[in-house]
Amino acid sequence: MGCRRSVVAAMQEPSAYAVVVSDALDDGPFFHGTKADLREGDLLTAGFRSNYRPEVVMNHIYFTALPNGAGLAAELAAGDGAPRVYVVEPTGAFENDPNVTDKKFPGNPTRSYRSTEPLRVVGEVTDWIRQTPEALQVWKERLAELSADARGEIIN
User: Are 87 and 30 in contact (CB under 8 A)?
Assistant: First the structure.
């Protein structure tokens, strides 16, 4: 992999994508968690099945300004690969993720966002905090409960 960076290094670099996005909601850096093995320059796009409701094809690509939040998403992601957290740059406009913003939490405490435009991988974070097996099991049980509850519907 071409570029592996720590969270601290990613946070100290200037925000090149802030110019692309007008009225940016957050200055970043931004992170995306997945089990995919990606390289610097790869683009992450919408159009894949949800990790939380596999029957739903997502119209957006999701990301966060919290590396450990991206790590949790990576650990919960579908697939057999190792969970990975990538530093990403939005290539277009983005919005607060309505699945957690105001619908479930006031404001945006998870600093979660989504875009219909691709995210460009600019590096990988390797020092994010992993969930314990017990904590990960609790998260999986919560997600299973949400899947069975109509209130767990994804705003797509």
Answer: yes
Q: Which domain holds residue 131?
A: 4-152
Q: How many domains does the chain have?
A: 1
Q: What is the pTM of this model?
A: 0.76
Distances (CA, A) of 113 to 38, 82, 141, 144, 148: 20, 23, 24, 23, 25
pLDDT digits (tens, 9 = 90+) for 28-45: 899 999 999 999 999 999
How confident is the model over 50-83, as pLDDT tens digits?
777 778 888 999 999 999 999 999 998 888 899 9
DSSP states of 49-111 as a string? B-SS-TTPBPSSEEEES-HHHHHHHHHHSSSSSPPEEEEEEESS--EE-TTTBTTTBSS-TT-
